[in-house]
Amino acid sequence: MTYTVQVKVMPLKDLLDPQGKAVMGGLSNLGLQGVADVRIGKNISMQIDAATADDAKAIAEEAAKKLLANPVMEQYEISVN
Amino acid sequence: MTYTVQVKVMPLKDLLDPQGKAVMGGLSNLGLQGVADVRIGKNISMQIDAATADDAKAIAEEAAKKLLANPVMEQYEISVN
User: Fold this and answer.
1) Cβ–Cβ of A45/B39 closer than 8 Å?
2) Which residues span the membrane (chains A, B) (predicted)?
3) Residue A28 main-chain phi, psi, to 5 deg
């Protein structure tokens, strides 16, 4: 069966996120009020052929560890639909 | 109150996603089987000060339209926690 797996990769909380800071500046220049913090990461959507949802998740986990996320700077979350 | 709002920006389904294709090639080179398609987008996490969750969502919607997503190439989804 084919599962749709989402991997969300975000910069670690303790690290600065200059891209997010730039977007926050841009929003303020556009006159948007109330945005206190912005952090920007990646969202990877994969179609995975696997026997079970757990197998699909295991494949995504390996992909995240080996290629998608840099554990020094990023954390990831995996969700299977 | 401060709401955490996630904006997921993904390339439109009908468009090619060269970054996703490159990652798919990388996964195959790493020996990971079963990944049929990969698409890569952005995930923007914002802390928004607003009176209600709907207000926070409206601010995020405006931010997405004006700055975060390019409607010619991308679609977005907003979720408020």
Assistant:
1) yes
2) none
3) -65, -40
- Domain CATH code at residue A41: 3.30.1280.10
Which of A36, A39, A40 has its CB closest to that of B49? A36
pLDDT for position A81: 84
Q: By CA distance, what is A48's nearest residue in B?
A: B35
- Cβ contact A31:B37 at 8 Å: no
Residue carrying structure tokens 């991308």: B74
Continuous H helices in chain A:
18-29, 53-63
Q: Which domain holds residue B48?
A: 2-80
**Record: contact B45-A26, CB cut-off 8 A:** no
Q: In a 10 Å sphere around its CB, with 0-12 CB exposed, 13-18 middle and 19+ buried, how is residue B62 labelled?
A: middle
What is the tens place of the pLDDT at every residue in B35-77? 999 999 999 999 999 999 999 999 999 999 999 999 999 999 9
C-beta atoms of A59 and B2 within 8 A: no
Q: Are B64 and A27 in contact (CB under 8 A)?
A: no
* Contact of A9 with B5, CB cutoff 8 Å: no
